[in-house]
């Protein structure tokens, strides 16, 4: 019994107060207390910060720890004599079935056996060991597992410290990226302000040139009108003269009249440059919508493709009755209905007369009913040269272009009341309507209009 007490006292002296087991890789602190190194690492806080002794709370640095090899060897010796201590203190376990002492252990069933149990068919192919040997093997397995777990703790502590460091680095990088982004957008805003100023200056110069041209044209027509009135007065006076006097001046008077009539001044033509708005095109690409045609709204003159993307005006009306939801003229609506948000789509228009734009979904199908303000917002091409017009009630502006439009982009911002037309191939603004407060659903509208009598018109294709 004295040996058992000795072993117990030895165990108490060689046991870590944190894990309550024999020392594993022990270290002794400046305060004199000893602990397993893994136990201290488990309680370690921030990297570089002092740690406290688990018993007296005295501070120490992890980097100052050194292994106490002598204490480790003593703990290992005490651990090896532990089985003998357990043997002195153990109690015999009796098999309930055979009433014999269970001195054996089955690895497969993880159960205690007596000799009679071993002789049964159940355990004939199992691995069976004496209880002392099985216990020693189990302790070894537990120790190996504990060693792996403590190594995992150390590795996890290291990784955790690295991850905390990464968080700080990431926060710094994210802050730097945000600042960089702010600077770039600030530069972009300044650039856009300069672009806006340049475009406005160009328009102001064109405005001055157009006004100058119109005033010069006004002066020429005023002078022409004055000359006409002068010639008319001379002719009226000559009509009152005697025959001989009339014959003497009539040749010169008629010559002056013919010269004046053949030299009528030319009316001034105004030019408006279509502006390429920096960044606007990229923004509108994010607002693209897949617009398709609504064949149920189509006029009987129109032919719609199977994919609902192309519409052509036939030269003659199809022999079908007009339904209430169909237009009488060469008009067809898009299938989409817009009640909010920003939307952009494009249309290939061809080189005949045409109209594209936006209209109220409730637009009357009867061509004889007059339009009301806000019913339609159209861009139209006429057959006379490069003449185009933008129209809504009561606004209608006609202008000349330097080239034919081939693809028109339509941009609708329903919430802000914006409708704009663009040359989609040159990425230039054609016209932007003044702000309008929309109160009803809107739909795309298309009108391919070749001259009457042609069998086939020019196809108009949506979202080519």
Short synopsis of the structure:
The protein has 464 residues and is an alpha+beta fold. It has helices at 2-13, 37-42, 69-80, 82-89, 115-118, 131-239, 243-262, 280-285; strands spanning 26-28, 34-36, 51-52, 59-60, 104-106, 111-113, 128-130, 302-304, 310-313, 332-333, 342-348, 353-360, 376-381, 387-391, 396-400, 407-413, 418-423, 428-432, 442-449, 460-462.
Q: How would you describe this protein?
A:
This protein is α+β, with helices and mostly antiparallel strands and 464 residues long. The protein is 38% helix and 19% strand. The protein is built from 8 helices and 20 strands. The strands form 5 sheets. The protein has a 7-stranded antiparallel sheet, with no helix packed on it. A 6-stranded antiparallel sheet has the order 10-19-12-13-14-15, with no helix packed on it. Strands 6-5-7 form a 3-stranded antiparallel sheet. A hairpin with a 5-residue loop joins strand 13 and strand 14. Helix 1 packs across helix 4. The radius of gyration is 50 Å and the shape is elongated. It starts with a helix and ends with a strand. The mean pLDDT is 81.
